[in-house]
Amino acid sequence: MKIEEILREHKKNVTPERVSIFKKMQEFHIFSARDIEVNFPEIPRASIFRAIKLFSQIWVLRRVSLEACLEQYEVNSHTHHHEHMKCESCGKILSFESDFLCKLLTQVAKNHKFKLREHSINLFGKCSECCN
Length: 132
Fold this sequence. Notes:
The structure is a single chain. By secondary structure, this protein is α+β, with helices and mostly antiparallel strands. It has helices at 3-9, 16-25, 33-39, 45-57, 99-111, 128-131, and strands at residues 31-32, 61-67, 70-75, 83-87, 93-96, 122-125. It contains 6 helices and 6 strands; from the N terminus they run H-H-E-H-H-E-E-E-E-H-E-H. Helix 2 packs across helix 4 (45-57).
């Protein structure tokens, strides 16, 4: 994903800070603003939060709600949609794909004359390692 092209498409400025921040985001599966701050102490915190807000608005970031009181994100892959499972014992986050769930949710939205843009499903429980 070329962030420079996406920013230009949305008529947003391409800045070295935005490009650097986005490249760092791509290294994570799921991350918080703090994860980005730690890697860029020279970039003001406000700039990081503005970049996160912008990237969310233009749909290159997707908010992931896996922990109360912690905003987490992942780079939005429009070609590889997946859901998440979080182990409540060890904290491991697993991803899974389900065509069945995607089709079901699309049909539910259609039945309610609702234009679905995105969906997110998070499962919580124990991973196989913690169950043993």
